[in-house]
Amino acid sequence: MARIAYPTLPAPKLIECLRGGYSANAFLGDLVAGLTVGLVALPLAMAFAIASGVPPQNGIYCAVVAGFAISAFGGSRTQIGGPTGAFVVVVAGIVTTHGLDGLFMCTLMAGVILVLLGLTGLGTAVKYIPRPVVIGFTNGIGVLIASTQIRDFFGLQTPEIPGDFLGRATVLLTFAGTASGVATALAVVTVITILALRRMSPRIPGSIIVLLLGSAVVLAIALPVETIGTRFGGVPSGLPAFHLPTFRPDLILTLLSPALTVAMLGAIESLLSAVVADRMSGDRHNPNVELTAQGIANVLSPLFGGLPATGAIARTATNIRSGARTPIAGIMHAVTLLLILLFAAPLARHIPLAILAGILVIVSYDMGEWMEIPAIIRLGAAEAAVWLITFVLTVFADLTVAVEAGMILAALLYIRRVTTTTTIARVTPEYVDHGRAHSLQLQPIPDGVAVYRIHGPFLFGATDKLVDMERHVPELPTVVVLRLRNMTAIDGTGLHALEHFADVLHDSGRTLLLCGMRDQPARMMERAEFHRHMGDENLVPSVEAAFARASALLARQGGGLTPAA
User: Fold this and answer.
1) Residues 324 and 412 placed together within one structural domain of the fold
2) 0.90 exceeded by the pTM?
3) Which of 52, 57, 345, 514 is least buried, going by the fewest C-beta atoms within 10 A?
4) Please, which contacts does 173-179 make with residues 24 or more away whose CB atoms are closer than 8 Å?
5) Inter-residue contact 326 to 79 (CB < 8 Å)
6) Is 416 in the same domain as 467?
7) pLDDT for 476-528, tens place per residue?
8) Do 120 and 168 belong together in one domain?
9) By residue range, what is the domain housing residue 456?
10) In this predicted model, what pLDDT tens digit does every residue of 53-76 receive, in sequence order?
11) Using CA of residue 228, residue 233, residue 239, residue 241, what is the dihedral sign?
């Protein structure tokens, strides 16, 4: 009788790194990075918790427990996990309606969903979310996070703030006259100082410097501003206590939608963060192992009073810039936060809420990817509409509705592009003559040139095939020709992938040539001003012209069998 083969996951990156040999120098680099990112994570963990409507210690508990689990079991060498801004609005709504136990139950459900996604190999399914949808809801989340910080940023004296954006804006405008000049000045100085320190060097942990110095000044001269101590009574010291949340079967269906939202956001943000980590470190993460680890983290976090967790792009980038080499750095980051909990928690009561609000304003701007908006608008009305509808629904409705609507529009746009680029035409002598310039059979490939082709629509969901090529860049010659004769359609996600591939080749001393673009891809590239990124001379009409351009480049570089210096 034949045995059923079940899918198996590769080992976590931690095991892979330790098996490969772990040196004292690697540990030193991981230790320094872990300490640095742990200090950076401290104010963010507290700020995200407060913005979500829960005590600050819940954010730290999440960073400790989930941060350890994501590094220990994950599929990325340098990913840092913990609470992030993506969950603020969802968590605040759940807490308001169902309390902390409802939040813990929802997080557990989301964790189980993420584990199932990883174990069943569906980690790669996140790639089917097109770029305009991702940018739309990250823009929307950025606006929502900023709106939740206005009260503390200006020190407003308000009743309880509503969870919806319009209700929140109404209350904030109504009580705008209660603003505190001292709190506003403190928050503004926080923002300016962080930006100034960032301009001096990205390695400087601006948020922790501002937090420590600002808290010391407020305490020394007794400034009249609200602090963690005045609102929450401080942060309790000691280990996070294990606690089984109250499980209510009657809430399963009610919490299913927010649990799916938390799982979806956790999957998207963690895998986006892992991709960023890959580009910065030169590694390659395993998406299914990473999602399984994210699921384990979200099962464990609520058992110790923690919030939902995911990969954190800013903290991951800080980790890599600080010298991290393996997941040990992420474990050291969790240990650092645990030591702070054990020995320095009472000092947190003196932290002004205005400083935490200033830090989150910076975070909300950073996560918004605002520079992507003009590029999306240039792609045409259809791509812009997907982005705008996703953005508006994120702000004024909720994230689930926004992403569902964005995906439906993107799917319709996908169908439209595929059908409109399908043609039936008679073959004429002119067509045959025109095709000779595109024929590889009639054009010998010059030495020092590699030719690749894209066959079919290059839309969201297919772009990872180009990412896979990046692993082989060191093996490629000086000139790479990408033949687009049979690429019938492209969208914003595909253009972004081509742009990144061109950057990778350029950074390695190589040149990318694109040839034979059909009508729809050519129009999209023209709208996106793609020639500014690639250079007009590297966008050519046929493979014949591409080989002529390649020969000129090789002659100028002296043969070109190895990358140019």
Assistant:
1) no
2) no
3) 345
4) 179/154, 179/155
5) no
6) no
7) 898 999 998 888 888 888 888 888 888 888 888 898 999 888 888 888 888 88
8) yes
9) 439-557
10) 899 999 999 999 999 999 999 999
11) negative
